[in-house]
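Justification of computing resources. Each target in the renewal requires a structure prediction run like the one illustrated here; the chain below, 141 residues long, is used simply to show the kind of job we budget for.
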Amino acid sequence: MKDIVNNAYQHSDITGKVIGCAMRVHSALGNGFQEVIYQRALAIEMEKWGLLFSRELEMEIYYNNINIGVRRVDFLVENKIMVELKAIIRLDDVHLAQALNYLEAYKLATGLLINFGAKSLDFKRVTNEYKLNQSTESFNH
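Resulting structure tokens:
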């Protein structure tokens, strides 16, 4: 169990930097803008902090090994962390479920759900437990 917990925070240095960038953006812009405005500002901030990322990266979604469509992830940071942005009053369980589904679809272990729409920045770290367990198992063998 300890290995899974440690593995869950294996990218905490990256997620910490992304959250810090998001805090600077929210502090400067406040709430009330469309998501794309925050996306552009976050890209500028992450670039300043030396984070490597792809923006609006199209990722294919598969069902039974058949491509059934594509979804654009707001950011893929360092090829490890999915970042999904929102600009809404409040995050609900449906947004968390969506982020978890994206992690599973993209075969990633860690993601961030960041909401710029509230008075204070709201963020959730999301983890794909199945992917973490796979990583831990391969790490232990």
